[in-house]
Amino acid sequence: MKVLIGGYTKHDSKGIYELDFSGENETARLDEAKNIIEVSGPTYFRKDGNLIFAINKPNNNEGGISVFKLNNGQYEEVETYLTPGSSPAYVGINRERHLLYTANYHTGIISVFSYDENGKLTLLDTDTHTAKTLGPRPEQVDGAHPHFFDETPAGNLVCCDLGNDTVEFYRLNDENKLEHLATYKNEAGFGDRHIVFSKDGNYFYVAGELSSKINVVKFNENTWEFEDIATYSTIPVDWDKHNGAAAIRISNDGRFIYVSNRGNDSITVFAVNEDHTLKLLQRISVFGEFPRDFNWDDSEKYVVVANQNTNNATLYLRSSEDGMLTPIQHDIEIPEGTCVVFSN
């Protein structure tokens, strides 16, 4: 097993790094990071077999997606799709249907691509978010900011818009065109960033970057009815410094939710109650600063968080019984990390 970490390349980073995983349980360790792909600003990326789809920001005028294919132990760039302006902030994937979804925070554009086994990209459709319901915070007043674009449990598409405080739902029709289906509106200033769904597909949990909150919502993916269930803070009640909630993940059994806090520099762990409300279990240090992303292996036993501002990562053991995290390795050197992917 290996861990891949990419991020910004403003200082020392050259792109995407690979760290070998060794040992098990309390003796598990990540070895020294090796640069395997040189690419500018791979702040988010996805892997499908021998293909890696990475955000690329090669210059100040263009940004987009580059595709790298593993050949004879080395990754080679096989495709690049660039557009004027900033690069996307998020990449989603459907490996069975060979589809990619991108959300561009700065341009407001969400896009759907198809790809073949060699990594060739074909743009299927786009939609541009407009300033319909902008929130009051400084990060929102300049326009729409789609920050996430991926699939729902029923196979529709969902986008979180930080600028508009909304969750937008779409379908990709038989002509491979995006059709807007519904909108869920959060409280003003919530700053919708990322979203996860319950195991039964009847609830979603959306992380608000600007509010440092998680909103629990019951919804029906046939009638598009929404019910606001509850909202929870990801930071302590007495925290008075800046914080931005970032990544959110839910365990495969649907029992635990995890969210990273950039500022409080922690991972907050919630238990999911039978009625889908949440119970705070743990708030644990990331042993660094600005944890934009974290991820786990297929068994969800090991968790790695990347700390962007302190150029390090931390490895935890996760209990499947009580959901708690136990740190087992600190100060893993990795430059400017913002995206973590486990690879077999």
Termini separation comes to 4 Å
Structural classification? mainly beta
Largest sheet data: 5 strands, antiparallel
CATH fold descriptor of the largest domain: Methylamine Dehydrogenase, Chain H
Count of separate structural domains: 2
Q: List the uncertain runs.
A: none
Total beta strand runs: 29
The top level CATH class name of the largest domain: Mainly Beta
Mind telling me the CATH superfamily name of the largest domain? YVTN repeat-like/Quinoprotein amine dehydrogenase
Taking all residues together, what is the mean pLDDT? 97
Order of helices and strands: EEEEEEEEEEEEEEEEEEEEEEEEEEEEE
Helicity, as a percent range: under 10%
Strand content: over 45%
Provide the CATH architecture of the largest domain: 7 Propeller
GO molecular function: 6-phosphogluconolactonase activity
Pfam families: Lactonase
Family: Belongs to the cycloisomerase 2 family.
InterPro entries: Cycloisomerase_2 (IPR050282), Haem_d1_sf (IPR011048), Lactonase_7-beta_prop (IPR019405), WD40/YVTN_repeat-like_dom_sf (IPR015943)
